[in-house]
């Protein structure tokens, strides 16, 4: 019996050796691949692009155009007004203030502008109001404005004294085609309005 029996753990001749103590194969013991560990890719960990952070574009942060931002002194607008309307120069019309769509003009006292009764004539008041509105428009465009009066309504509220007249003009709205404004006329030294004007202008862009 001893010649035919063998240990249970011994391999018979021609049989492969038992695998009970075999170490795991290299494939089984390999560390997980980078893909299996799900490490974030370089693209996923990159900082957000400038577009993703919503930084303002150069166009959005641009300064206003020189024409919109340029402010002229009243003396400069006075020169433009007197050159464009020679009658304003002949009457000595002064631009006392002009800024951001408003203007204050002064018409000196002239005996030849009086009507019977000793008050300032209506045509003189209308001309002053018209020039004052143009000065207000010039203050919005850096002195470059060739708009034209399309309508002017005047209401005479009281008799002006025979002295200098002040005209306070204000642009109410300036669109692409039309501009609307109003002018209050007062005798110098008085707070009372002697005439009120509403006016519409056709906007004309100067040649570039």
UniProtKB/TrEMBL annotation:
The keyword Signal is annotated on this UniProt entry: no
Composition bias, Low complexity: 8-69
Domain Thioesterase: 117-190
Gene3D superfamilies: Hotdog Thioesterase
Record flagged with keyword tRNA-binding: no
Family matches, as InterPro entries: ACOT13 (IPR039298), HotDog_dom_sf (IPR029069), Thioestr_dom (IPR006683)
Region described as Disordered: 1-69
GO molecular function, one term: fatty acyl-CoA hydrolase activity
UniProt KW keywords: Hydrolase
Alphabetical list of Pfam families matching this protein: 4HBT (PF03061)
Family designation: Belongs to the thioesterase PaaI family.
Protein's UniProt name: PaaI family thioesterase
Organism: Roseomonas acroporae
Higher taxonomy: Bacteria, Pseudomonadati, Pseudomonadota, Alphaproteobacteria, Acetobacterales
């Amino acid at each position: 019996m001893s010649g035919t029996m063998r240990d249970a753990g011994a391999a018979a001749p021609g049989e492969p050796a038992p695998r009970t103590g075999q170490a795991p194969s290299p494939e089984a013991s390999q560390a997980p691949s980078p893909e299996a560990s799900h490490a974030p890719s370089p693209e996923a960990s990159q900082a957000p692009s400038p577009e993703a952070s919503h930084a303002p574009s150069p166009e959005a942060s641009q300064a206003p155009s020189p024409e919109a931002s340029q402010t002229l002194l009243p003396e400069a607008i006075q020169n433009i007004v007197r050159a464009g309307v020679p009658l304003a120069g002949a009457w000595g019309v002064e631009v006392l203030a002009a800024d951001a769509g408003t203007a204050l003009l002064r018409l000196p006292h002239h005996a030849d502008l009086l009507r019977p009764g000793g008050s300032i004539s209506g045509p003189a008041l209308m001309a002053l109001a018209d020039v004052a509105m143009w000065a207000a428009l010039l203050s919005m465009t850096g002195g470059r404005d060739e708009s034209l009066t399309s309508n002017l309504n005047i209401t005479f509220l009281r008799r002006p004294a025979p002295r200098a007249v002040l005209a306070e003009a204000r642009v109410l709205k300036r669109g692409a085609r039309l501009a609307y404004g109003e002018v209050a006329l007062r005798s110098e030294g008085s707070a009372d309005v002697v005439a009120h004007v509403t006016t519409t202008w056709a906007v004309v862009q100067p040649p570039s």
